[in-house]
Amino acid sequence: xxxxxxxxxxxxxxxxxxxxxxxxxxxxxxxxxxxxxxxxxxxxxxxxxxxxxxxxxxxxxxxxxxxxxxxxxxxxxxxxxxxxxxxxxxxxxxxxxxxxxxxxxxxxxxxxxxxxxxxxxxxxxxxxxxxxxxxxxxxxxxxxxxxxxxxxxxxxxxxxxxxxxxxxxxxxxxxxxxxxxxxxxxxxxxxxxxxxxxxxxxxxxxxxxxxxxxxxxxxxxxxxxxxxxxxxxxxxxxxxxxxxxxxxxxxxxxxxxxxxxxxxxxxxxxxxxxxxxxxxxxxxxxxxxxxxxxxxxxxxxxxxxxxxxxxxxxxxxxxxxxxxxxxxxxxxxxxxxxxxxxxxxxxxxxxxxxxxxxxxxxxxxxxxxxxxxxxxxxxxxxxxxxxxxxxxxxxxxxxxxxxxxxxxxxxxxxxxxxxxxxxxxxxxxxxxxxxxxxxxxxxxxxxxxxxxxxxxxxxxxxxxxxxxxxxxxxxxxxxxxxxxxxxxxxxxxxxxxxxxxxxxxxxxxxxxxxxxxxxxxxxxxxxxxxxxxxxxxxxxxxxxxxxxxxxxxxxxxxxxxxxxxxxxxxxxxxxxxxxxxxxxxxxxxxxxxxxxxxxxxxxxxxxxxxxxxxxxxxxxxxxxxxxxxxxxxxxxxxxxxxxxxxxxxxxxxxxxxxxxxxxxxxxxxxxxxxxxxxxxxxxxxxxxxxxxxxxxxxxxxxxxxxxxxxxxxxxxx
Length: 717
Prior knowledge:
Helix content is about 40%, strand content about 20%. By secondary structure, it is an alpha/beta fold. It folds into 3 domains: about 10-230, no CATH class; about 265-330 and about 370-510, 3-Layer(aba) Sandwich (Rossmann fold), CATH 3.40.50; about 520-715, Rossmann fold.
């Protein structure tokens, strides 16, 4: 909500700087107490009563002295308290936004000062006597989020400030910006806030200053003034985030909508369209008392899982007649999402109940996200209709075929003679409903990586042969080769009942990758790379290489150094490798070490189990469906380039052997497809140099891979 000026829907309070300085404390507090039906917690209001005087002092009126500074030697440091250039020189009046909402992070930045030349997010820690690393990363995250996802901030210099009010001292200068124009946070105390802002505005106003020329990174390019910002409309600008699946799940579980946390530009508009199409099918099935199965397709990272989570959260209440559950056979994904949601739920619960316990939160989350195999086993024990009228199956192509399920049932459950596929069993459980039911299948193409995965054909064949009365809603892209469903679709269309019940719905396909927000065509590049299409791969890479770096190295030390230079704030980085990469042990990478996905994806940098430690490698089985910001992709001799095609290998005993079976070859290629599409912002590919005296690591195994990647335009770091 705004003060007396134009309202900003993203901030609780937004007004010109002059209006803020003229307003009484009560006039500023009023919008903070009940904006849009929400209310700040009492401790947050108390903090603002302490923060406002600090902010007012730093942003003093024109007659004050704190808004002027002297920088005689041009080094970007304040050389005196009085005199010098005016702090807010410029044609457009600065604006101030308080409690500016960052939905992707599930947080609000305390204050954002916007001038015609800079955006300055300010995070207060009232009473803090030191600068905590987590607080520092939080301030940096705010700056990065605005830069990446807030349209009016894309071209703006970003100067995040962390103000620990009672800290003994402040930074003396701003650190150099990264290539995107975001500075590392400036740490200051209450007395130093005005100086921090003054120095920021001096740097923003004078791109050619000696300080910038001397200290800024070499890849910033020639100094030039960025396009002016319009402070009065900045807060109402488009916010188009691309959250990680963990961030998205947290936000949806906290009752944000899919519109709040996802991009709104034309290239990604179909995420909302697809969600609406699925909701319409659910509503229609309920109204007409029908049973329906829905197939949603999409490129890697397009948001298929997000569509499913949106359905599950919208219908998560037990009082909802369309109660939904999100099911996945991906054990690591289930474990990581459950723990992330439980921790987030606990943090919210403790705001009102200090005695809240993590166990209560975990129990609630378990009902929302379930392992598909546990759901399957429950339907075998209890032959009644499930409590859920809507079930969402993530990565439906990974459901088991009849042979795999029969083997499991005989070995683990003591049930010999099992003949159904997993899709037939699961659809059959929903068939028990007397009135209506909906099954939503989220389908990834070319991502079968396990023996016994039936692919999407098993679902289509199951509906055709056993459940002909079901309505079938199909994405037209299910005919694409990577889904391997053409035969099953032809069989369905060829049956009289199937043809009558099948509807092809274009809105059920997600065409734009949301994962790698810096490179929407990454998945196409990876497909070209794995399909041996060198010219196409080179063209696609040239389109995004400046925004999404992919580099190559023969040194693991260089790979780790590059990743640490790129990572900022709480961005997540990690080491990934194929589950067949058995000869990386000389580089201290042993894929036989069974990582704990919860710790790997969620633990902080100093935890040796964390991905950020860059020691333990996760395989395709542990990262599929999840993502990182930056990755080290290790490329072993299991998949080798022979000049015109791939050769496929498995390490048996003491030597590499050829992989003969076509499905096993496809699993191996798909493993690298998964690994190469995990990073949201960039990756370094490590190709070992090999060792002449080790016949299992001959340099010849790796040279072809290295030459192939460089031929695609990937440069060595």
